[in-house]
Amino acid sequence: xxxxxxxxxxxxxxxxxxxxxxxxxxxxxxxxxxxxxxxxxxxxxxxxxxxxxxxxxxxxxxxxxxxxxxxxxxxxxxxxxxxxxxxxxxxxxxxxxxxxxxxxxxxxxxxxxxxxxxxxxxxxxxxxxxxxxxxxxxxxxxxxxxxxxxxxxxxxxxxxxxxxxxxxxxxxxxxxxxxxxxxxxxxxxxxxxxxxxxxxxxxxxxxxxxxxxxxxxxxxxxxxxxxxxxxxxxxxxxxxxxxxxxxxxxxxxxxxxxxxxxxxxxxxxxxxxxxxxxxxxxxxxxxxxxxxxxxxxxxxxxxxxxxxxxxxxxxxxxxxxxxxxxxxxxxxxxxxxxxxxxxxxxxxxxxxxxxxxxxxx
Amino acid sequence: xxxxxxxxxxxxxxxxxxxxxxxxxxxxxxxxxxxxxxxxxxxxxxxxxxxxxxxxxxxxxxxxxxxxxxxxxxxxxxxxxxxxxxxxxxxxxxxxxxxxxxxxxxxxxxxxxxxxxxxxxxxxxxxxxxxxxxxxxxxxxxxxxxxxxxxxxxxxxxxxxxxxx
Lengths: 361, 165
What we know:
The structure holds two protein chains of two kinds.
Chain A: H1 3-38, H2 54-63, H3 75-92, E1 101-104, E2 107-110, H4 119-129, H5 131-140, H6 144-175, H7 180-187, E3 190-191, E4 195-196, H8 199-202, H9 204-217, H10 229-232, H11 242-267, H12 277-287, H13 292-322, H14 330-360
Antiparallel strand pairs in A: 1-2, 3-4
Helix pairs in contact in A: 1-11, 1-13, 2-11, 3-4, 3-5, 3-11, 5-6, 6-9, 6-14, 9-11, 11-13, 12-13
Chain B: H1 17-35, E1 60-62, H2 77-81, E2 87-93, E3 107-115, H3 124-128, E4 134-136, E5 151-152, H4 154-157
C-alpha cells in the first residue's frame, strides 16, 4: 500500500467523521427549534444566530458537570456501554458509499472508506451491535428503571431486526448483490428514460417496512420505549450523567444518521444525483471547459451533496414524526412487529422472489 | 360498571396510514405557521413582560396621600387577619401639635414589617384594611439575592406606586 493510498483513506475517514459528527449539533438544534415551531413556541434562540450555538454550549455544560458513577454499578460495563454506543454506528459508516470517485493527481479514489463486497452484511452486524450498549448500560447501572429500559430496548430491537432483515433481503434479491456501490450503480438506471430506478419505486412496501424498522432500531419516537421519559424517567441511561450521558445522546443521533444513510443507499438512489442535476453538472462541466478528470470531480461533488441532501431530508422526517405521533404501548409495539410487519415482510420477500424468478425465466 | 364503547373503524382506518398522514399534515401546518408567519405563543420574557389583570396580587405597598403620609392608622386588622402571620406592626401616636388630619389619623405605624417569604399573597389584608392603606401591586418579580431584601419595612412599603403598579 503506497503512501498515497494511506493518505487517501485517512482523508476519507476524516471527511466522514467531520461530516457526521459536525451534523449532530445541527440536527439537535433543528430538533429543538423544529419541535418548538411545531408546538407554536420559539425554541432556543439566544446563543448565536438563530440559537445555532446552543448545542455547543450544551456540550460545554455536559463536559463540565460532575463525573458521577453509581456505587453499586458494575464499573467495567458501566463505562464500556457509552463508548460502544458511539463506536457501533460510527463503524458502520465505513462501508457506506457517499460518492462515485474523485481523481486526484491522476489516481482514482473511491468515495467509500472501505470497498467491501459484503458491505450490507457489515452494516447489519454493526446495527446488531447497537443492542449491546442498551443492555450493558441498563444492567450495569443497577437501577430498576435502567433494567426495564434495557429489557424493553433489547426485546424491541430483536423483534424488529427480523422485519428489518427481511425487507433488506428483498432488496438484495432485486439488486442481486451485497455490494452497496453496485446497488447505487443499479439505481442510476432509469425507467422510460426519466424516472430514476430507485428502490422506493421498485419495492415501496419494503421501503415502508424498512422505514418503520429503523425508527424502532434507533429508539426514536413513536417507539422510544427504552427511554420512555414519562414512565421510565430516562430508561437505560438513567444513571449516566455528564460526558457519559452526552455520548449516549450523541450516539442516538449518529445511529439515526447511519440508519438514514442505509435507507438512502438502498431505497433513494444513494449518491445518485437527483433527476436533472446530473445533466446540469454535465453541461456545466462542458461549458467551463474542464478536463475529464475535473468533470468527474465536479460530478462527485454533486453526488456527495445529493447524498447529504437526501439524508438530511430523512433526518427532517425523523424530527417531524417525533413531534407528531405519541408513544406506542409495549403490547402494540410487539403486535405491530410480530403480527403485522413480520408476515408482511415475509410475504413481500416471497412475492419479490417469485416475481424475479418469473421475469428472469 | 364498565361500559363497552364500540369504535366503528372503516377498512382504511385499520391501516392507520390515513390517520398518520392527517397527523403529519397538522404538524406541518403548525411548523410553517410558526416558522414563516411567526405566530408563536412565546413571550420573550426579559424584553417583553406579561400584563397581568388589575386584580393580580403581587408585591405589597402602602398607599400614601398627597402629603406623602401613609394612610395606615395602625388598626392591626391586617395583622390579625393575616393567615401567614407575616405582618408585624408597632403603633405610635401622631404628634398632636403637627397633625393636620385631626382625629382621622391620630395613630400611625412606628414600624410596619412584612415578611414576603411567609406571605401567601391571599389578599386578605387588603380586604380587611378600612383605610385602603395596604395593597398588593401587580409587580410579580419578587426574586431577591438574600433573605433580608424580602423583609419589607415601612420605608420600602411607602414607595410610590401608580394605580396598582
